[in-house]
From TrEMBL:
Gene3D superfamilies: Nucleoside Triphosphate Pyrophosphohydrolase. Keywords: Hydrolase, Magnesium, Manganese, Metal-binding. It comes from the Bacteria. Its cofactor is Mn(2+); Mg(2+). It holds the Pfam family NUDIX. Residues 37-171 form the Nudix hydrolase domain. CDD domains: NUDIX_CoAse_Nudt7. This is CoA pyrophosphatase. The keyword Signal does not apply.
Amino acid sequence: MTLAERLARAWQAGRGGDASLLTGDDRELDARPPADLTPAAVLIAVTDRDRPGVLLTQRTETLRHHAGQIAFPGGRLDPGEDAVAAALREAEEEIALPRAAVAVIGPVAAYRTITGYAVTPVLAAVPADLPLVPSEAEVASVFEVPLDHLLDPANQLAASAQWRGQTRHYYEIHWQDRRIWGATAAMIVNLSRQLAW
């Protein structure tokens, strides 16, 4: 069975989801209706190897927003695009991931960010060890974290911080010397609650 088939089965088996899925919607901080949110998409690219991994990027320190943070490849939808098309385009632009190499499983539960985005993660399988090239303007590096490490609830640490005078709760996941947190970690937690891996 291919990795894409395994992921598709795990997604179908876990599709019932979990009533406690994170939405990122903290009404104390952001009461905007869904129509006022900017649609975006990210690619959760799982590498086909004995111990599958997930491709993540470290953003450059020169970006105006989220400098230095860890993220999935992705961004806003262009006019006429759906989440899958946007995720594939952004991954190609940010890390030179060829669309033809991606086996799309499908979109997972959308995540609403406090900064006004409705982000749809797109789950996909990709070959291992592709020659990925980070876009100098946006991406400092591309790296891989084992899927089982990300999905393990023991590695999904709850944390909180003050933001605009309110306590904001979030998740963080540590891998080697990297700290994955915020929306990226929340989308991973959501995936772990929906994927029967």
